[in-house]
Every structure is written in C-alpha cells, then in structure tokens.
Design a protein that fits this description.
About 25% of the residues lie in helices and about 35% in strands. The chain is of the alpha+beta class. It is globular. Strands 1, 2, 3, 7, 8, 9, 10, 11 and 12 form a nine-stranded mixed beta sheet that branches. It has a three-stranded mixed beta sheet with strand order 5-4-6, with no helix packed on it.
Length: about 230
Amino acid sequence: MSGEEKYRHKNLVGSLPIPDSARLTVRYCGLADYEPTWRAMLDFTASRNAETIDELWVCEHPSVYTLGQAGKPEHRLAENGIPLVRIDRGGQITYHGPGQVVVYLLLDLARRGLKVRELVNRIEQALIDLLAEHGVGARRLDGAPGVYVELAGTVAKIGALGLRVKKNGCYHGVSLNVDMNLSPYAAINPCGYAGMAVTQTRDLGIALTPAQAAEALVSHLTQQLELA
C-alpha cells in the first residue's frame, strides 16, 4: 500500500463546533485534492457576508507543489512527477503531501479586529505552543513566515504558512509536517530558501498521528483566535 493509499484509510470527515460555535466552525475534510479545495475557499470567500460564520478546514493533500502568486518558478529545482499548482497566496513554492496536517483559516479579519501581521503571529504561536507541549523548542525567523526548530546544528522548517485577504476575508492557512515522506522537498527551495532543511514531528520524537496532531493544532489555533 502506498503512503497516499494508507492515509486515505485514515480520513476524518465531519464537523466539530468549538464552544463558541456561533463564531467558528471546524471541518475535518480528510485527504482532499488540492485544487478543488482551493477553488472551494475562493467560492466561500466570495460568497460570505456579515453573517457568515468563520471556519477552519482541516485536511491532508495528495502530493502537490503550490507556488504563490509572486513565486519564482526557478525555485523548483527538478521534475519528479509531482504536479504544481499556481495559486493566489503569498510566498514561494512549498510541498503538501499525506502525513502533513493543513489547516485553512477562513476568517473575517475585521470582525475579529485582526491585522494580517497579528494573525500570522498568532498562527505561528499556535505551532510553537503545540511543539512546546511535547518538549520541542520552536521559534520564528525574521522575514521568513513559519516555524523553525534546531536540528543537528542547523535550522529546519517544520511549519509553513501563507495567506490571502479579499474584502477582509482571509483564506489559505498553515501546514505542519507530522509523519510524511520528506523527499519531495529535495526538488525545491522550500518557501524560496535554497538549502533550507525541513523536518517533521515524528523525527523530533513526538508520537502524534496526523489525526492527533490535527486536533491539537486546531485546539491551539482556536485558543489564539479567541484572544481576538
């Protein structure tokens, strides 16, 4: 059984309202193809109004590279059969695959009184707090959104994020490497940084399945959003 087939049998599908369900709904979407998910985010954002409840969409994706709207194609270093989708978030190229938890944040920023920079900080803090619960120190890097850990004397990226805002509605979101095949990162400059190392929670001794990591990340994200 391939890695992607294995994760197809672990999909979580459903909807989980958090205590303040009038303000935020969390949807577990399982293993979802990237492009239809992105198109659904566009449709959701275009159709939302003042009464639309904010949502988090939690999923994993089959193997895919995504390139941000100002992304440089030369950051893909080699062809390996993995498709590339050009999208409208910020940032450069990144990789998504089974075993990586992705959370899309579809939020009304004006309602929450958030600016983009503060939202980015809160997303990063959710990742930092999750890792700290398991004894792993993580931090930000100036000018490089995401979350990083020390690994064998170097800095390695474990969480990536990218957002887009239209009419105060944000979409796209954050990914956390949990238990995945990291080799596709060798074919890109991750997030545009040549030689950037990447890692995952499994390799840091954190015994969480992707499903468990997803629930933990949602918990930390909702805590950060409730501060708004």
